[in-house]
Amino acid sequence: MLKRLGIVGFGASAIGFINGLIESGKVKDYRITVLERGKDYSHNTISGVRMDGKIFISHGMGGEIYIPLEIQAKTVEFYLKFSGYTPTVDKRVGIVNYLKSFERDGRKIEFGESFSDEEIYKRFYHHGFEPVKSYFFHLGTDILKETNKNIYEYFSSFENIEFLFGTTVEDVEFGPPHRVHTNRGDFEFDELVIAVGRSGHRLMERLKEKYPQLVRPNQFVDIGVRYELPNHVMDPFSDMYEVKVRYRTKTGYICRIFCQNPAGKVTLEKYEDFTTVNGYSDSLHKTENTNFAILVTTRFTEPFKDPTGYGVNLAKLANILAGDKEKVILQTYGDFKEFRRTKRLGRVHPTLDSESYILGDANLVFPSKIRESLVDFVENLEKVIPGASYFDNLLYAVEVKFYTNKFLNDIVEGLHVVGDCSGWTRSIQYATSMGYMRAVGMKIQSL
Ligand SMILES: Cc1cc2nc3c(=O)[nH]c(=O)nc-3n(C[C@H](O)[C@H](O)[C@H](O)COP(=O)(O)OP(=O)(O)OC[C@H]3O[C@@H](n4cnc5c(N)ncnc54)[C@H](O)[C@@H]3O)c2cc1C
């Protein structure tokens, strides 16, 4: 008899899971029901209009699990093929060259590689940085809808896979059998995949509350600033998508560059009762500045259990000093380093609108261990990126990256919590590959 398998959500990780079942031949053992909240295949995150469609191959970027490079390459190949790209050479040229060769309507896939230049790689390495190598393939926002449609049609061609769109899962009781309550009635499954992404946070919060034994407490929070400097400083690295580096500062804390936006803008990220900073780049409106986050990873151990609260309170402190819960502090790097409040800006003009910040002193916000780590990082960055520590470069405080609690698989029989809702991934690549690895039965290790 066929086993009943329920899949909640039809995003990247569900796609990886179903593909894993198909490739391993296990698909024939199941009757599969996909329960997706969107009203049809084009209403999931993957087809989202704002989605950039960049797929990376990298270790340590996009998730906190180990995904072997050959699995990552397979995932890229899968998306390329379903996006209408075809290879122009065979795999003997090496996997990256093979993937780079894919074309659609005579146009090569947009490809980028960080630290491909050996000299640059060595320079960073020599100065104590850990350069994170990565390759990226840019499918393009416009193509993603079609990609999704092709994948959906392929999966639908299996007669034992059915899709129920417009079905929101409201609650689950783990078994087996697993009972799933939806707006369209209840279902029972022998195996269950939960793949609801970040947008499924309501369901996940409910499950975490009901099953605390399946949740690993989080110990981390990343705290720092959004840093803004002239484009010309970063120009020598423009062929890299992002200068992704980590550095062990003199305090022992690891500091890293995150979310780089060439010719981009700094923006606010508003929460219910506090505000932090973020950045983005707009393909139409280019600015003269590049921004990126500089984040210090802070890890807490017993008895302190609330890293998120720690980050929130620092963000609130910055808002209090800025005089408004919707404002942040802006300071020049030179003033920050010399413990002076900024009263006047220099050559670098902020891209955040002037209503959203107050010129101030972020030294009043950060505990000294974090402050020292930030300064040490920028001073060392100057050795590899001349201009990184210009006096008038700007820093906005604070930027915080919260970690979600991680879901433990392997405790409940026949349960797979995959993708971003599991807390282990945060990218198309890692979510898809995690789904794939669970389906084929590969062991998944945390980083
Ligand atoms: C604007 C934006 C741009 C991004 N750009 C990139 C990028 O360029 N490259 C990259 O690697 N990553 C990008 N990401 C991140 C990437 O989208 C996610 O990491 C990835 O899609 C996670 O896959 P997932 O399967 O975990 O969740 P998702 O792909 O989000 O899929 C979850 C699915 O579950 C459904 N769902 C949610 N709750 C329920 C429920 N209760 N019942 C039924 N169905 C439910 C949702 O409708 C959705 O279809 C971007 C994210 C956003 C928001």
From TrEMBL:
It comes from the Bacteria. Residues 244-400 form the FAD-dependent protein C-terminal domain. Pfam families: FAD-depend_C. Gene3D superfamilies: FAD/NAD(P)-binding domain. PANTHER family: DEHYDROGENASE-RELATED. This is FAD-dependent protein C-terminal domain-containing protein. It comes from Thermotoga maritima (strain ATCC 43589 / DSM 3109 / JCM 10099 / NBRC 100826 / MSB8).
